[in-house]
């Protein structure tokens, strides 16, 4: 189910996506502060010549990790036309809106934002989402979260290390009737979660299961998906921050 906020002024995500050199908004709540998100520039490495299969994996972390090493590989073939289209949009953003826009930085910040927001949703700490998620989406979330079962609510949470794969979806550049300029980027996430879900969830959607270990120590985790849309206003004088204006956890948050 899509939870979407209308375009226009909303509450802005200042910590994850603040432009370099700009002041960042103070925390919106005093209790249980939201973890700070790293936003550090890194030298851009060599870029692929075109779309290809992409891989992400998790393994035992560090020498102290117990048990056998774990490895999960997620493979997705990108559409050449979709890849080219998104790169054209990124070029337009740099040419006409923000010459310092970085796809790598945006993707890194989007992953951190998705992890924090999804965990707050799972914990029903919706008050801490003010300033991170648009008010329109928050109003819908407050009604929907209370209706979820414990298992479905647990399945919303995505630890940053459990995000297997991230890619962009639709990218939109548009003006409203008042001439205000906006950019929206839809990000898709695949993540592992150990919630107790049935093999098949309603609606004929398959939940992929991954089992680690042998029969005596096996651990079952689900590979789930989520879609989050990030919006920023580029009108002169507007805050240089991004906000989440759409949240989808297919077959979970309904």
Automatic annotation (TrEMBL):
The keyword Protease applies. Keywords: Hydrolase, Protease. One of its GO terms (molecular function) is ribosome binding. It comes from the Eukaryota. GO terms for cellular component: mitochondrial inner membrane. GO terms for biological process: protein insertion into mitochondrial inner membrane from matrix; proteolysis. This is M-AAA protease-interacting protein 1, mitochondrial. It comes from Aythya fuligula. The lineage of its organism: Eukaryota, Metazoa, Chordata, Craniata, Vertebrata. The gene is MAIP1.
